[in-house]
Amino acid sequence: MNCLQIELIYLYLEKELSPSELKEIEEHLFACPKCREQVEERRLLLQAAETLPEFEVPPDFTKKVMSRIFPAKASFFGWRVILGTAFSFLFLSVILIFLALNKNLPNFLLSFILTLGNSVKNMAVIFVKFFKLASLFFKILFHFLGELSRMFSLLTTLISPEIVILVFVAAFILVLSSIYGIRSKFLAGEKL
Amino acid sequence: MDEDIKLVKKTLKGQKKAFEMIIRKYQRPLINYIGRMVGERELALDFSQEVFIKAYSSLHTFQPQYKFSTWLYKIASNYIIDYWRKKKVQHLSLDHYQEAENECLPLQIPDDEPSIVKKFELSQIREKIEKTLSMIPTQLRELFVWRHVNGLSYEEIAEIKGLPVGTVKNRVFQAKEMIRQSLEEKP
Q: Which CATH number applies to B94-185: 1.10.10.10, 3.30.470.30, 3.30.70.3270, 1.10.8.60?
């Protein structure tokens, strides 16, 4: 038998050969030190490849994947407990106030409900106004920032970067001195 | 019935715990396979998460006549290929390699064949293999990792890639000899 083909050496090492092929190769290896040497060479390579260090798996890996597949939902039972507790506290507070004031129960309950209704109505109006004002403020702010960035990009295309930096430094000094001037005017006559 | 098939069926019936068991079983081999393909642990962790999520969402398409592990590796392999394609990541293609290198790999042991591997300690060989893996064509690297890191059979690899077993054996052989030869070249 001729010397072994390299592919055959690998298949021999991986036990991928038929019993007859295996017998033939073992007989050859017994007689051929050159092939024995090459088998040992490849055996070492495979041994190293099969014992490469493993990538470390974080302990919370499974949990992370599961939480992405099944996002946590607040259970209906949980919500019922929160609402139940809130109503219990409200009811208990009403009873305590009623006992402390020592008034007629139907009249007291009626006035309580009316006061609560009015409070909710007033708060709702305040909230609506607040959100309207906030949205208007952000609209103006975004518009202002957009204009500012447009102005800045226009400035950089017209003037060289050194002059732009110079203009900004001058503007900064101007703003600082204005603030200092205003502050001095307001504090005139006061002891610092 | 195969344990994996049972877990898949339980998952499809709504038992979350069954899919958790699947993740626990395959997280390590999957991360090791992806890690060796992309070369970064953090990226491998992210990709493995995505592969498990993809596997869960298409679990109803899994056919029980195939092995679950090969199906999962197929998803992972496609995911990596898609990532490389989308990001236009440069990776060594087998086509480029075959023209230049294939003829250089000897089939027979040359008479003056020096001992390359035996010069090094086992730990040194491991280090060199890690470095060399990124330099061999991705198609060869993938098959090498499945065979010698993940311990899959040639038949399983052939099933994943849809290639004849003989082609898989030949490509894994090419990968091993390329790695062996590059051990000599590396300082």
A: 1.10.10.10
Residue range B3-87 in CATH 1.10.1740.10: yes
- The Cα–Cα gap between B93 and A182 comes to 70
In tens digits, what is the pLDDT along chain A, a chain of 192 residues?
688 888 899 999 999 999 999 999 999 999 998 889 889 989 999 999 999 999 999 999 999 999 999 886 656 666 778 888 888 888 888 778 777 776 677 777 788 788 888 999 999 999 999 999 999 999 999 999 998 888 877 777 777 777 878 888 998 999 999 888 888 877 765 554
User: Hey, are the CB atoms on B126 and A62 less than 8 Å from each other?
Assistant: no
Q: Which of B24, B28, B32, B109 best probes binding to A when mutated, by most A CB atoms within 10 angstroms? A: B109
pTM for the full model? 0.65
Q: What are A78's two structure tokens? A: 């949980």
Q: Do B27 and A52 touch (CB under 8 A)?
A: no
CA distance B106 to B122: 24
Coil, strand or helix at B77:
helix
Tell me, what's the ipTM? 0.82
Token representation of residue B101: 């290198």
Which residue type, as a one-letter code, is found at position A87?
F
Q: Name chain A contacts of B102, Cβ cutoff 8 Å.
A: none
Q: Please check whether residue A83 lies inside any domain of the structure.
A: no
How many structural domains compose chain A?
Answer: 3
